[in-house]
Amino acid sequence: LHDFLQGDKLTLGICNGFQVLLKAGVIPGDSSQTDGGRAEKRTATLTWNDSGRFIDRWVHLRTAGSNNVFLRGITELDLPIAHAEGKLVVTEPAIVDEWRKHGQIGLCYAAMNGASSPGDPSAEPLSFPANPNGSVANIAGLGDRSGRAFGLMPHPERFMHRTQHPHWTRKSMPEEGAGLRIFRNAVEYFAA
After folding, report:
1. Rounded to whole angstroms, how far apart are CA atoms 115 and 92?
2. Is 124 annotated as catalytic?
3. Is-catalytic flag, 155?
């Protein structure tokens, strides 16, 4: 795994995949890493949603100044979530500052009316349903410092075509669903 991550390759973890990448220390992949690629000390984890329940709904997201390959050209999008343990927590607030400084915060839950401060550690978490699980700094997706590994709780693979969006009959939207752009960015990374 360490050799794979050191190569010019991409790693994407969606929902449970994000949990695996986080618990394995691949993300955030900060300076607490050893030469073997495992974190000496965990600084963040995903835990139970504030509601204590499984949540299945659509959320609005904004990018947060990330350097991540998967998010190129994306500023905001709607995606579905489906999880019970999606609340991102940290051992201390300064960790979020470090992530922001290194462009690791990829996606943040946002209110549809524009009220949010993507990745701002001093910002109070948005209330339900905008931040459906109570994640610190409204974080929905996090990457490593290289920008080639990314984990997110929302499911981009569930929005590949406009007919998958719950408002597809009421809103004008392109045929291609917004989730497809995340995968297209991965392909385009290797085409460049």
Report:
1. 25
2. no
3. yes
